[in-house]
Protein 1
Amino acid sequence: MQNKRGLLLVVSGPSGAGKGTVCKRLVEKRSDVFLSISATTRAPRAGEVDGKHYYFISEEEFTERIRTGGMLEHAVFCGNYYGTPKRAVDDMLAAGKNVVLEIEVQGAMKVRSHYPEGVYIFVLPPSMQELRKRLTERGTETPEVVEERLSTAAWEFTHIQKYNYILLNDDVEKAVCRLEAIIDAEHCRTERNLKFIEEVCQS
Amino acid sequence: MQNKRGLLLVVSGPSGAGKGTVCKRLVEKRSDVFLSISATTRAPRAGEVDGKHYYFISEEEFTERIRTGGMLEHAVFCGNYYGTPKRAVDDMLAAGKNVVLEIEVQGAMKVRSHYPEGVYIFVLPPSMQELRKRLTERGTETPEVVEERLSTAAWEFTHIQKYNYILLNDDVEKAVCRLEAIIDAEHCRTERNLKFIEEVCQS
């Protein structure tokens, strides 16, 4: 069989580009793709399940894991730590599962320094007008926050060239199909199949 | 719209791996993919149409085209020239058509020196036993020719790492699906979309 190791898919993109929706739909559609579960020090909200929505851990444990290299990346929001536990990701990859990390640009670049063989995907809105429209229509953000998101997006765009692929999200179903094509194509990359090629040659 | 330029898909692989069948099926299935038509100096056979099966040209014209850089690659078989006309390929790529060149390893490496942005795909049989079986079951080759093909295959395998992808042909329909995924994914590659990214940023 071809490449048996799972792919690490790192998905970034501006707020409002729809990366969450695309990743959620991908995981529903494909039984070989799994979302990475983040660890956090914040308290669980009503209905949140440990090991499903997040791994809820203490601040002491979180900082200890950072210290010992157990977090692939982490960030602090509103005084709480959020991060990606390395062990869980490594176990899934070794088991042949494709793992999706939905993280912002700085975290993605941190992960890339450890996993250059990962697949780095930047979700793009069709235009900045459309991004503004999507952010405004959510109705949850003040005009100031919308402007702040747009200026963050402009900064994030300056990092696109560090990603392997752009994923245009003009339509969720189309974007998911493109993402599936990226997964299937990446499994065929020569450098991921050196062992398999050797097996064929020696058969 | 994303990357508007067509992709140059260069497909190689040992005799008996099934690259011809896979490419033919791909072109039937996808309206955006076209087979490149070779030029040759051999006489047309009954039913062969100029500009469809081959471009039939004189030896004088063929060698003149080689001299002026009009052939992407060429080879001589049984005293006749065969080659890929550069102009036809460039016109199709510029018109946004994906072009398939089904050529052997040496020709592919020659093309790669001119088109590093091409997508280089090596078709693999599931095993060498299966390759031997397919070559034998054709019934058109003598045992000596089968052995010769297998030893050529062993040489071709030493060049696989110069290809971007391997395409396992365990089943024609599955192989065609993987090839379609490669095409769709390559159109999403960041370096093919720099102009599109700039358009989105400035919109």
Protein 2
Amino acid sequence: MIKNDRFLKALARQPVDKTPVWLMRQAGRYLPEYRKIRSQAGDFLTLCKTPELACEVTLQPLERFDLDAAIIFSDILTIPDAMHLGLYFEPGEGPKFKQPTCDAASIKKLGIPDPEDDLGYVMQAIRHTKQALAGKVPLIGFAGSPWTIGCYMVEGGPSKTFATIKGMLYTDPAILHQLLQKLADSISLYLQAQIAAGADVIMLFDTWGGILTPQAYQAFSLHYMQQILQSLPAHIPTIVFTKNGGLWLEAIANIGSNAVGLDWTIDVGDARQRIGHQVALQGNLDPAIMQATPEVITQHVEQILASYGSGNGHIFNLGHGITPNIQPENVAVLVDAVHEKSQQYHQCKQHDQAQ
Amino acid sequence: MIKNDRFLKALARQPVDKTPVWLMRQAGRYLPEYRKIRSQAGDFLTLCKTPELACEVTLQPLERFDLDAAIIFSDILTIPDAMHLGLYFEPGEGPKFKQPTCDAASIKKLGIPDPEDDLGYVMQAIRHTKQALAGKVPLIGFAGSPWTIGCYMVEGGPSKTFATIKGMLYTDPAILHQLLQKLADSISLYLQAQIAAGADVIMLFDTWGGILTPQAYQAFSLHYMQQILQSLPAHIPTIVFTKNGGLWLEAIANIGSNAVGLDWTIDVGDARQRIGHQVALQGNLDPAIMQATPEVITQHVEQILASYGSGNGHIFNLGHGITPNIQPENVAVLVDAVHEKSQQYHQCKQHDQAQ
């Protein structure tokens, strides 16, 4: 059914001809055609909530680049938006909520959104996109982790110290667990619906897990991500990504995902030694390298491929989302370099197997 | 000469009766007596530049709490300020520079500040404080790392993605090395002068090293910190702290400092297993825990002490600076809990040695 199944094979740690590659935020502001649609939509949330447009921007990077996966255009804050907390985006400041969720009463009031009734625009965008893709590449559905979504809900917006949610964690953990449980239940339903609508792979983004102590990370982030993974059908491959989670890879690899996403602070070869026997690895070019020349980009691609080495189970990606200041031509350089320079590592493997 | 030498002994990994404790930013806005002096001074920089007042606020936390060290009240950006880049503080936004240092020409123009001529106010503050302390506890002098100071100079202020300095790193590394070498030379002279003025211990703060790849961290941060350490007299104990550097502890422990500072994302027992045979460890309570009740603070102190276990070489601290929203009473709880609860780990050791 899927014509280019390199990404699915790598997730299953099966042999491939070339290392598959896609980019976090590959449908985004670095593309002029994205900025055009975005300005037509008026604002970011309207773009997310208009399935035809969300489908169109999801497909844009695939028109330009030889990417091995599509990821549905959406946002990790669709769930609290569906909980009626008044999500809005202040230009240059990131997401904010008119009603932060920072006490027992406001947490008690939160409902579990019904995916088709309250978040139907996401499912519609997935259905449109699946149809338009016509099996060209797999489509990734996604959600934020309960902890990460909770950070935005409790703080009411971006934060440097996350003092409010951490205060709650250390003074009233039971209340925070109630919030995270509601989020985990909501996310499970949401991702099940994304799968029913056609998502081939699911990714959990834990942007803020890395601000926790090892014990708090286990109890307040990893635990709930594990619950979510367990609620999903076993045949759907999953990827878990905790930014700044490099110290905790063994724990992350144990919660049942097929792949673990890596940011750029860890050497992918070291990560493979630690957890490569259990999971596939996704990453991990520093997004800042995309500002450099084609030669420098290619050189860093080669370093990462060499560090991972021969064999299966690597999905190339950035260590975080691509930033708006990147030239689209450099993405072509990256994608083509991954495909071209990775062949030697897969040929070697096939040669070894033939012997 | 120093009456309470618990901190110096722990830095040398020698036996102590109790685990020594001090707090990053212990002279700071959480103290009402600090806020009073600060409002008299007018602004933060004037306070730094008035030796009598800097001395007074350095001593304030020692009046209240049974701390085992003092740290001179100053800022990591005194050096670029002495380079005439127009340092100023925008309320709620952090430090900024009127002239960012983001090209070859502006880097070439930078001079190496003379510590006594250009930064004499720091040396005077240290001399005053040493006299006032009268050997009560050791006095820590400090500087930012070249990479961290460079981040502020190149970005011109706080940044989320550090796109400008990382762009320089990947497109024009030679220029960035020129900047970092000038900073390393300046910092070496600055710290030598702090030692001559009376600083007993030196700490390097690498707040932003953790945003780099492992290779870039080695080349653009660790390398220059090692140069600085090598320029200091061998008898002066040193501490190196890279926030989010937990993945690179082995490399950090190899550059010749006596102690390595830890943020709260790593278990102190794991860190001890990895590098405790080489260096003392400083840390690592999550500063957010200081918002909690005395019982919760004490419980987390006990966890960290137990995780480090019996024996020498632990200096208790937070994993980052104390925040302005903390009740001073909670600092007393912390300091006293460290001293009280740590005795068992040192008694055991002495008992073992006696056998």
Protein 3
Amino acid sequence: MTEQLDDLAALLRDGEPQRLQQALTEISVGDTVDFLERLGVRDRAVAFRLLPKGVAVEVFDMLDQSLQLEIIEGLKDADVAHFFDSLDPDDRVRLMDEMPASVARQMLRHLDPRERSLTGIVLGYSSGTIGREMSPEFVAIPEQWNAQQALDKIRRAGENAETIYTLPVVDRQRLLKGVVSLRGLLGAEDETPIADLMTEADSVIVDHEAEDAARLCADRKHLAMPVTDKEHRVVGIFTVDDALDILERAESEDAARQGGSEPLHRPYLSTPVLRIMRSRVVWLLVLAVGATLTVQVLDVFESTLESLVVLSLFVPLLIGTGGNTGNQAATTVTRALALGDVGPRDVMRVLWREVRVGATLGATLGTGGFLVAGLVYGWDIGSVIGLTLLAICTMAASAGGLMPLLGKKLGADPAVFANPFISTFVDATGLIVYFLIARAVLGL
Amino acid sequence: MTEQLDDLAALLRDGEPQRLQQALTEISVGDTVDFLERLGVRDRAVAFRLLPKGVAVEVFDMLDQSLQLEIIEGLKDADVAHFFDSLDPDDRVRLMDEMPASVARQMLRHLDPRERSLTGIVLGYSSGTIGREMSPEFVAIPEQWNAQQALDKIRRAGENAETIYTLPVVDRQRLLKGVVSLRGLLGAEDETPIADLMTEADSVIVDHEAEDAARLCADRKHLAMPVTDKEHRVVGIFTVDDALDILERAESEDAARQGGSEPLHRPYLSTPVLRIMRSRVVWLLVLAVGATLTVQVLDVFESTLESLVVLSLFVPLLIGTGGNTGNQAATTVTRALALGDVGPRDVMRVLWREVRVGATLGATLGTGGFLVAGLVYGWDIGSVIGLTLLAICTMAASAGGLMPLLGKKLGADPAVFANPFISTFVDATGLIVYFLIARAVLGL
């Protein structure tokens, strides 16, 4: 498939817009999106304008938000209003968050009154909450109705709703009583009361964190979840495709941070090189400054090093192994946090597990290190290496397991505390441990 | 919430099964699953037996597969058959994959004939393909029908189907012609022909890789996708909640491998310490053996080190920075691969980007290193550090960007080539570069 998309890109480069226009009518909307996401900014603007209007709206809707913004910047006002109007309220708000405030206000003014008021509802919740991601367009079913009445309402009012497959059931005060599925309604006799068809609802409060809500929706396999205010009144609905979006963003963020860079928030090939560089340079500088600690530690022990240069041979191996061990623990715990398998309250349980895992790993590697280094460089050196591996692995696993939990407790992204941060921390402390053990064992 | 679940666990420890049984009736199925996933093996078996039979089936269905297996091992044959029967064919097959073959066969024999034949269909496809994850229970709509006929069929035959919200439309040869949504059917007049309601279908071939299919389903926001054979005949359907499962497993795997360990395939707190240790020790040993390369490199340059011990002070900083840079590139490219933003064919585009990013980062850090090291240790040393940083960053970013693509081309998991692997690779090559530059600049 990518091969075919590259052929299309070649048509663009060769200045054959007519043939490209023809070719674009022959591939699906999804493939068109993939095609656009692989182009540079200018090529994408050209290609986008070649799409028939109906297709363009669908494609625009599925594009990455950073790319939507670029396309909007390149269009005339009247066209922009058209695309803007076609978005769902929650997607529209997410796009507006990225625009200069003056542009966003102007966009809002062009919307038709109904869409404007829906957008206003979503805009009222703070960024990062599920309120910002939900849809205020839903069909609620009164609990005293029967299946037939509910189906009639869905046929009548369902057109604009975000979903009609999962429907919140409410009482006269609009308080959430449960959910009913369209499948259940269709399978029931006309006269069956809704109360008999409805099931208990997992719901989220509107100012709840969006990522947690998305994880809940995915974990419990819901197609949609009602969103309520604090009094349990239904204010919106949140669907599994919103959840997928949120989780994909969160996971890209975690992956980037674990690798020690900021997330790009856009497809790799469509990101300018300078922007990729900027996403990395700050972390790299911070870590390099942290790493100067290792220079200072070694400086302190320079006399030890001078009297026994062989000690310096093992420095990369020891700190590398420490970094790897810490990294393994941090990654495991970060993922468990993201999946909700552990929480900040589990600090002691996690610490106790990682101390044991680290010590076992350290004993295994330490024995190996003792034997190999001992055979080659003498048993004195072997003992130093073996003991250091035992100490470093235990320390690194414990620190690696704790840091993400600590980060979460401090309200920071736990993934930030994974790999590169741990490596830098373990490098410095590991060297101190190494030289202290060396001095003690070798009597330097 | 976790606080409340810990209170329940306390009831178990205090030997109050009656109070726990009572408390369990008051929490939702989802919360019960969370509760069980935080317990040890024996406690979980006890708690599970306290659940009312109807709830137990629902809970069993939502449990992590590794935990399902443990529970089944602790039950009597008659009970096992009951739980086994309640699973969907695809979930059943996934569980059977983990059982000893003899047990799996016995289970299969206990199933009722219809379920057994459905399970047989799924079992016929190889592990890792979408055929293994799809459901063979779907409702297909003939293209020559109208909306009313389709709705009648759904009401009649929909009960056992995996989903009724997205329905494959087929011709008389059962070839896939498109999909129609239940929403579209409900919103249409009775007489509207299906051909007018149906839309183009994104479908997957049955022996396609499951992860790619899941990513496609999530990217294109489909609630379900038809699965066809090579002749384009519909053989099954694949829903978004299957996709969510597959992606969660794939992402846990990527996260673990990026951290240099094997995925646990089960919730962290419910995993025995020895098993966590085993998931890490192999990688750690492999990397440690790789790291002995650094000892050998340093051994070769020992005379250089002896004549100028100050060079050894910068070893952790230089290789750490190299590791971080390589790691950033590898993580970005691995994620882009997972999201389908780049493919193995993009090797040259990725390489060219990473060379530029690496060189820019190297120039920035190199200038800083030159100034700081120059001021403290003299301009000779400053030049060595600055030049080495420039070289290492360029090299590390290029290698980090290439390795995941190479891995993919070789059919390995690209995430394996991320962080720890790159760090070890960069450690050894970085040291060589460092000492060569030092010898050249300092005339040693």
